[in-house]
Amino acid sequence: MSDGFDLIDADEMVYRRALVTWYDPVTKVLSPEAFKPTRDDSDGLSLWRAKYVRMEDVARGRQPEYYVAALKASEIIALGMHLEQDDPRRSGTPGHCVIVELTYERRKEQRPLEWRVELSKKAMVMGPFRNGDRT
Predict the structure, then answer these.
(1) Is residue 7 domain-resident?
(2) Contact at 8 Å (CB) between 99 and 47?
(3) How many domains, in total, are found in the chain?
(4) Which domain holds residue 120?
(5) Cα 33–68–102 angle (5° rounding)?
(6) Which ranges of the chain would DSSP assign to H, the alpha helix?
(7) What 3-state class would DSSP assign to 96?
(8) Residue 4 domain-assigned?
(9) Which of 12, 32, 11 has its CA nearest to residue 117?
(10) Which residues fall within 8 angstroms of residue 88, CB to CB, at 6 or more apart?
(11) Which of 47, 50, 63, 71 has the fewest beta carbons under 10 Å from its own?
(12) What does each of the 135 residues of the chain score in pLDDT, given as a tens digit?
């Protein structure tokens, strides 16, 4: 493993944490809300690179449990978006990256809304993971 500065390969898997209310395990439908930028996403929607972070670790958060949405980087790129590696010295964590086009400022624009729908259809969902689960 490198120091987290390497370029994101098109075949790499990336993860996005999803609230349990955003995924229906019966219908297997993930809500586009899973890809909605928050106020913290000023430079792009946060994702995690699978080569640096286990999905169980991505699933850790304030809620008791989460799902994890997994996508190939190539699927994001094919939709016309760009992935950018975050500087691990700034974030403190290797493997954090962002979808540059999905920012909090642009969250209500038509194209980002469409991208969110497309991402939710392409994502493979794993879980749920309960906080404290270690596999």
Answers:
(1) no
(2) yes
(3) 1
(4) 13-130
(5) 40
(6) 55-58, 73-78, 88-91, 110-122
(7) strand
(8) no
(9) 32
(10) 3, 4, 5, 94, 95, 96
(11) 63
(12) 456 668 899 999 999 999 999 999 999 999 999 999 999 999 999 999 999 999 999 999 899 999 999 999 999 999 999 999 987 777 677 899 999 999 999 999 999 999 999 999 999 999 999 986 544
The pTM is what?
0.91
In a domain, 107, yes or no: yes
Q: Hey, how many other C-beta atoms are within 10 angstroms of the C-beta on 29?
A: 12
Question: What phi and psi, each to the nearest 5 degrees, are found at residue 106?
Answer: -100, 5
71 assigned to some structural domain:
yes
Order of strands across the sheet with 65-72?
83-85, 96-99, 45-49, 13-19, 65-72, 124-130
Structure tokens at 85: 């590696």
Instruction: Report the alpha-carbon distance of residue 115 to residue 32 in Å, rounded.
Output: 9
Alpha carbons 35 and 47: distance in angstroms, whole number: 10
Entry field: residues in the chain: 135
- Record the tokens describing residue 21, joined without a space: 């209310």
State the DSSP H helix or E strand holding residue 132, giving kind and residue range, or none if neither.
none
